[in-house]
Predict the structure.
Amino acid sequence: HAQNNACFFYEAMGGVRSGSRQIMMGGQQVSEVAFGWKQLAVSRRKLTT
């Protein structure tokens, strides 16, 4: 979370972490996180607040 603000967005949209792994990117090891949803439909209210 500390280095990836996108996680906050996906969690706010109802996403739940479903996995993670370490990958090399630009010569540095970084965490890659996967999110999943029980329902893909997102309410309009969540998108505008």
About this structure: The chain has two helices and two strands.
